[in-house]
Amino acid sequence: MELFPRGRWEAEKSLFYPCEGQKPYFLEAREASRNSVNASIFMRQVKMNRQQAPEMQEVYDEVNATTLLVLPYVTPSFHEWIRQQNQQFIDVAGNAYLEGHGYRIWIEGRKKGGNLSQGSSKSASRAFTPAGLRVVFAVLVNPDLLNEPVRTLADAAGVSIGAVSNALRDLDRDGYIRVARSGRFLLKPQQLARRWVELYAGILKPKLRTRVCLGPGPYEIVEEVKAWDSDVQLGGETAMLTKGYGIRPEESLFYGVYPWKEVTRALRLRPDPEGNIVLRERFWNPTYFPKSGLAPSLLIFADEFADGDERQALIAQEMWSHDEDLQRFH
Fold it and tell me: Residue by residue, what is the 3-state secondary structure of the chain?
């Protein structure tokens, strides 16, 4: 966007709808509908230099010259080799080799840890901070909260009034909601839900207090799921099993109020770092959401899609497509 400030760029990640033969991460970008590029995004650093070219060749064989490699960092020693292969790439530091209709971009020398957006005039959105993600979650799960007083939304999300005001202001600025005299309106629920899922695991989840314990197995937990309405809510793979998806859970995840006294006592849990029960801090006020022994579907999906293995991720995608509570995001 910085390289083509006058262009209209659209990005679509098929995180949720992987195309046949494509990796889970896939990006399509268009500038004014004239240029299109498919991108293979590597979330982890690939060891790349001239001595390790065979390792990269294996990666290269899976893509083609029309595919843009998006990498954490390309070392200077590897830059020349990948360019000689006529392989387009860009990394987080801003190094790039891009060719298209009427342009060629060749940027090298940016050091690891650099930020391509340092010169951007647009500030980071406060809707995607840990507090902001709480607000976004509350609005996505219960859209009626969008037109409640700010104080009510703050109580539902467990954040300050100032955090709610900042998040709503930036959501309006970025086109996710519209503020009018008649109220606030959610404009892009699908895009906002996807954005929330992408950021939850890395930004909000690490801030939540967690305890791992040893206790009953997942199938025992499922049989008693209705017993947890008042104290904790079941999430993760065991919640997916409860919803009828074909998954074989190995652990159970509960969201509740720290230090989870009631469920600890009821299930006779004892701390164990290798245990099969995960207790995690609940970051929403259940008073403002439908009463249920399960966590909201959006959170169940996010936990399994981000943390599960490949098979769990595929089942999570099935849930995204068919779960009744997630239909509003389609």
Answer: CCCCCCCCEEEEECCCCCCCCCCCCEEEEEECCCEEEEEEECCCCCCCCHHHHHHHHHHHCCCCCCEEEEECCCCHHHHHHHHHCCCCEEECCCCEEEEECCEEEEECCCCCCCCCCCCCCCCCCHHHCHHHHHHHHHHHHCHHHHHCCHHHHHHHHCCCHHHHHHHHHHHHHCCCEEEECCEEEECCHHHHHHHHHHHHHHHHHHHCCEEEEECCCHHHHHHCHHHHCCCEEEEHHHHHHHCCCCCCCCCEEEEECCCCHHHHHHCCCEECCCCCEEEEECCCCHHHCCCCCECCHHHHHHHHHHHCCHHHHHHHHHHHHHCHHHHHHC
